[in-house]
């Protein structure tokens, strides 16, 4: 950022799935939570000032933060999306850990919208699709099973580009959800919608609780 003063779109799309059991980050966090959640959140926080500065000189909704979730959230995440006790003490169930990290991205997209929407920044979540990438390199048996329903990796790029650049997206889509290959869609599961809402909005505040926990974990690295 010493060389750049403008950032129009931040795509958070780093991810890992089903690493060897017991894998942790250098800081000691469960590896999927660290890579898919804590890292992107810290990265976004470090770039937030630049995003806000850019938004001041841009049309509302053109500056965006894009979070990468997954269809896995709809199919496999537990009721309510995240069980906080299991986030704090990593489970041995890799499928559950992956699901938690992906709903975490969704939670962040929603919470970030609350915090930066007044600056004209759109925070939006996208599911890039089922793709032929190396994401499941640690679960080759699963990859071979689902291979017939996977699409070329470039198709996922279409979804991400739509979320970040499409003129169809405006401030009214803050906290929105984009599905393959560039369509705006309502969150399908009612229990997730309840978790996305604060207690004051009639929800259970779980997204906010997860955000606050993550903020504490990354605070010393800012």
UniProtKB/TrEMBL annotation:
Keywords: NADP, Oxidoreductase. GO terms for molecular function: oxidoreductase activity. InterPro entries: NAD(P)-bd_dom_sf. Belongs to the short-chain dehydrogenases/reductases (SDR) family. PANTHER family: RETINOL DEHYDROGENASE, SHORT-CHAIN DEHYDROGENASE-RELATED. This is B86a53f4-b5a4-4f7b-9b49-e6b352e90a27.
